[in-house]
Amino acid sequence: MSIARGAAVQANVVGALILRELHTRFGRDNIGYLWIFAEPMLLAIAVAALHAGEHLRYLGGLRPVPFALVGYGLFIAFRSILTRAESLLEANRPLLFHRQVTLFDMLAARALLEGASTLTVLTLLLTVATLLGYADPPARPEVLLGAAVLMLWLSFALSMLVAAAAQRSAVFARLLHPFLYLLLPLSGAFYVLAWLPGGVRELLAPVPLVQIFELARRGLFAAYDARYVDLPWIIAWCLGLTLAGMLALKGVRRHIELA
User: Fold this and answer.
1) How many CB atoms lie within 10 A of CB 180?
2) Torsion, CA 35, CA 40, CA 46, CA 50, rounded to 10
3) pLDDT at 196 > cutoff 50
4) Rg (Cα) of the chain, in Å, rounded?
């Protein structure tokens, strides 16, 4: 089988898995598949509403509503991809009887679904916030899109490690959810590095998750100087975690019993 033929087959597999995920998670009751947009939208609106009464700008000219929307919106995607990876095998074990379906495909389908949902919701909410006067159009939309893509890449790479670890350790699976909640205030979703004391900033600046949020603020606000962003560093982390995740999935696949 040629590389092009193999890629086409795997693309069809991932597409079918996306449709299956949509049906099993949301079904066709009430608003059906639209829940994939409604759930993150409601959460992001609730967070942004807490800042809607703040007419003053944050330090550095950052407007609070778009700041909260993008920060929490991207973190929702990060958290959703990782938490759904923890339950991957229980929901999809029978699919592994098909040779063409792999754990990688299942995780890719979920990450793409979350990515499409996140980008659609953020685009819609930022547009509405701009029309209502709570936000300005993104200063560098291509940079903001790049930050969102990097967030999804990082989340997908970590989701492979999470799926492999959850299969080997029940304790890890139980600790994942509280860990992600504790991670929220440290992730960079609601602060920028320039606001922090020097020692704390030096500690958090190398974290790729924090760097991606810094890059997103660079794309969102014209006045923001993302001096601490190191794009090659972020890409190196994503590449390294992707390789580690693929090796982890390959190792754990041998221990999965289908019967």
Assistant:
1) 16
2) -160
3) yes
4) 19
Residue-by-residue DSSP string for 53-75: T--SPBTTTB-HHHHHHHHHHHH
Q: Residue 164 and residue 188: Cα distance in Å, rounded?
A: 26
Element at 18 (helix H, strand E): helix 3-26
Residue 52: C-alpha distances to residues 7, 21, 56, 57, 67 (Å): 46, 35, 10, 11, 11
The backbone region for 138, taken as left when phi is positive above 0, alpha when psi lies in -120 to 50, beta otherwise, is beta
Positive or negative, the CA dihedral 205, 80, 19, 243 is: positive
**How large is the average pLDDT for residues 197-213?**
93
Each domain of the chain, given as residue ranges in start order, spans: 35-253
Residue with tokens 């992730």: 187
| Assigned token pair, 166 | 């959850």
State the pTM of this model.
Answer: 0.86
The CA distances from residue 161 to 197, 225, 231, in Å, are 32, 33, 23
In the 8-state DSSP scheme, what is residue 193?
Answer: G
Which tops the pLDDT comparison, 54 or 42? 42
94-129: pLDDT as tens digits: 666 667 778 888 888 888 888 888 888 888 888 888
